[in-house]
């Protein structure tokens, strides 16, 4: 099934586009498709976001725009992204996905959501009692605000949908070798989650942020990863035919980096970054 919903006057209306407003995250969620469990840094400037989506709005209009990360509420100017997005894409559903820990840093967020007709989804990642004890007050707060204001503040149970997209961890990361990209795509729960990253459109989060992840662990020359690093994302230089072809793709070679039958993570860790060590193998460490 294509990501294109319709094409009108040279503008492709697509299912969804995700944007990292920041790569920074306060949690370590085992199996994160965005590699947010590896302490990546960097945030998107609001001016850069405006530049990107202004240019892309001439050829793309997503049905939904997801502002996420990382953890989007760690960006001090989160509300500005809503106003910019609503100005550029007036028909698009604006959606913030958050773990909820830092909503209190944005006292004007609720008003911004009302003014931009935006939605917010609290992602519940784990069944761990300690974690649930932390987010229960957040859940209750969102419920009260929803009842009082009518703003679309929802909760998304993600506790049984997380899967592994690579083997190993850190320096030992490897792509899967099932060699069944069609099957991998069929079972992918992010197949329609295109990413706007570096002002280009990418098929999904695992490939969009792959180079950032591999650079962190000196894996960009690993022959097992090279075929996937050579993936060509979509840029504004593309012709209408090239855009149509890209947006219509289902499975392709890059899907083969993920498993054909994704193993589910039902006992996911959340809060223990201090115990999450992805150290360089001893031989490699000596060589450096």
> For the record, what CATH class applies?
Alpha Beta
**What's the helix-strand series?**
EEHEHEHEHEHEEHHHHH
Poorly predicted runs of 5 or more residues = 282-288
Helicity range: 25-40%
Would you tell me the overall average pLDDT?
A: 92
Taking the alpha carbons of the first and last residues, their distance comes to 47 Å
Radius of gyration, in Å, reads: 19 Å
Major pleated sheet: 8 strands, mixed
Domain module tally: 1
- Fold-level CATH name: TIM Barrel
Question: Structural class, judged by helices and strands?
Answer: alpha/beta
CATH architecture: Alpha-Beta Barrel
Taken as a percent bin, the fraction of beta residues is 15-25%
Tally of helical segments: 10
- Rough outline: globular
Number of DSSP-assigned strands: 8
Provide a descriptive summary of the structure in words.
- With 288 residues, the protein is an alpha/beta fold.
- The chain has one domain (4-267): Alpha-Beta Barrel (TIM Barrel).
- The chain is 30% helix and 18% strand.
- It has 10 helices and 8 strands.
- Strand 2, helix 1 and strand 3 form a beta-alpha-beta unit.
- Helix 1 (46-56) runs parallel beside helix 2 (78-88) and helix 2 (78-88) packs parallel to helix 3 (109-116).
- The longest helix is centred in the middle third of the chain and has 21 residues, at 129-149.
- The radius of gyration is 19 Å and the shape is globular.
